[in-house]
Amino acid sequence: MHYILGRIVVGLVVSLISFIAYSSQIFIIWPWYGREWTVELVILLLPFNVLVAILFWNYYLCVSTDPGTVPSGWKPDTHADGYEVKKLTGAPRYCRMCQCYKPPRTHHCRDCDRCVLRMDHHCPWINNCVGHFNYSHFIRFLFYVDVACSYHLIMVSKRVLSAMNGYNWDEPTTTELILIIMNYVTCVPVLLAVGGFRYSLECGVCAIETNVIRSIYHFINLSSNSTTIEGWEKDKVATMVRKGQIRAIKFPYDLGKRKNLKAILGTSNPLFWCIPRPMPGNGLNFELADHSVPGEVWPPKEPEIPRAHVADSPWTYENGTVNPSLVPSNASRLRTKRKPRNQDMDGVYNLPPYHPDFQEGGIQQSSSSDQESDDEEGGAFFESNRVRRGSEGYEVRTVDREEMMRRYMEELNSVPDRYNRYEPEPYSESEESDNDDNVPLGTVRRLNGSVQV
Fold first, then answer.
1. Rounded CA gap, 358 and 339, in Å?
2. How far is residue 29's CA from residue 47's CA, in Å, rounded to a whole number?
3. CA 268 centroid distance within chain
4. DSSP 293
5. Cα–chain-centroid distance for residue 261?
6. DSSP-based three-state secondary structure for 74
7. DSSP type of residue 166
8. Local structure of residue 206 (DSSP, 8 states)
9. pLDDT tens across 294-328, in order?
10. With 80 as the cut, is the pLDDT of residue 427 above it?
11. Using one digit for the tens of pLDDT, what is the confidence trace for 25-62?
């Protein structure tokens, strides 16, 4: 993300948090209590302001803390356990963009243009990568967003219920009503987006969040000591295991629930988990689980799927030999196997016995003609096109227009009674005499002058 655009996004996030936190107190809660300080008002607002202050502090730590990068000249210790290697060569992982070796769980971020230690994702809402040194601040920021928004909704909803069940003097003013609606419109989507929904896009090895990050998803990763990228890798490994491509492999950095929380939050005491503190370790090496196998690569290599052999030429068999003969197509074979249309089955005929074309025990000329015509029409393409069996193409015999016209005329004359061709007869005087039969007798006498008055 651009430097100026990132600063603008951070400013919008700070403005949104400030609006939700202070507009509800100044324009909703303060008028509700009569604009006077009371013990009940202090008890209501003091915890909320403490949550907002810790939320701002963790957000500042997320934005300002460097997630960690590879030290200059760092090289992996190939004799120690836990160093990662390339899947293909087995050599230590190397970044061609940064021109340096990659420590375990390190990935290159295209937005930051550098390798980030224990990279989780690149978050545009903090204009920074979430890595080894600010991941614990990011987790606490998500936690305080969920808690503060929930407290805010309870506080505002309490004012709405009081107005609905109270008297006329307790009704909210127009300003209060507008601010109540605006607080619901801004706070509810933030709580649902941060706490319930997540939509991310993968950009190389960098995940760009297009919506605020789902805290539940990261809390699950927190309990398993994995990042967002490693979560995708575990899903891919589970798919390959389910398909039977590889054997089951356990995640090597899952130390157990309690040790995972200690490795990220810095302490095993739950009372100090919410206190801001950096993540322990240097981000260059990590403790491995007891179930990890020495020399096992994570993520495992995806097996190569064997592909079918493709012949060099389409006019070959599967074994590579050439097919020298041309075999008739299926339409030509079916033509010889088709039953006569005159007789569908034994003893049953299509034509009744009194039909003039019916012949008992024989094949009718008209039916066979229809059969031949159907076969010729349906297999016209295959007669001029022969296909090699076991191949992927056709051999087409070129025919000029004269040849096509000659064959067409032969087809018309070869099949008897197929077409009734009309040929006009020359005019004769007999036709005129025949037409006189249809003229009325009175008209004929008048024309001949034989009408008597």
1. 17
2. 14
3. 41
4. P
5. 34
6. coil
7. S
8. E
9. 777 788 877 777 666 655 555 555 555 555 554 54
10. no
11. 999 999 998 889 999 999 999 999 999 999 999 999 99
Residues 76-124 pLDDT 10s: 876 665 566 665 555 788 898 898 899 889 999 998 899 999 999 999 8
Strands (E) across 96-175 are located at 100-101, 107-109, 114-116, 121-123, 128-130
Q: Would you say residue 295 lies in a domain?
A: no
Domain count, the chain: 1
Joined tokens for residue 378: 């349906």
Q: Write the DSSP assignment of 238-285 as a string of letters.
A: HHHHHTTSS-----TT---HHHHHHHHHS-S-GGGTTS--PPSS-SS-
Element holding 138 (H helix, E strand): helix 135-165
Reported pTM: 0.63
Which residue is catalytic, options 115, 123, 149, 187? 123
Domain annotation covers residue 220: yes
Please list, residue by residue across 308-327, b when 16 or more beta carbons sit within 10 angstroms of its beta carbon and e when fewer do. eeeeeeeebeeeeeeeeeee
Q: For residues 216 and 445, give the distance between their C-alpha atoms in angstroms, rounded to a whole number.
A: 113
203 carries an active-site annotation? no
- Per-residue pLDDT band for 11 (boundaries 50, 70, 90) equals very high
Those residues whose C-beta lies under 8 Å from the C-beta of residue 196, and which sit 6 or more positions away, are 214, 216
Query: What's the rounded Cα separation, in Å, for the pair 389 and 324?
Result: 10
> Look-up: residue for tokens 């920021």?
141
- 206 domain-assigned: yes
Q: Which domain holds residue 157?
A: 3-272
Decide if 384 is inside a domain.
no
The answer for residues whose C-beta is within 8 angstroms of residue 337's C-beta and 6 or more apart is none
Q: In what order do the strands lie in the sheet with 121-123?
A: 128-130, 121-123, 206-209, 200-203
Task: Identify the CA nearest to 217 among candidates 239, 200, 198.
Answer: 198
Q: How far from 441 is each of 397, 432, 434, 437, CA to CA, in Å?
A: 68, 16, 14, 9
Instruction: Say how far apart CA 25 and CA 22 lie, in whole Å.
Output: 5
Q: pLDDT per residue over 118-130, tens digit each?
A: 999 999 899 999 9
DSSP 233-244: HHHHHHHHHHTT
Rounded Cα–Cα distance for residues 143 and 137 (Å): 10
Q: How far apart are CA 50 and CA 147, in angstroms?
A: 11
Distances (CA, A) of 39 to 29, 43, 97: 14, 6, 60
Q: How far apart are CA 410 and CA 404, in angstroms?
A: 10
8 A C-beta contact, residue 105 and residue 230 = yes
- Residue whose token pair is 């090597």: 252
- Reading the block at residue 393, the tokens are 């193409």
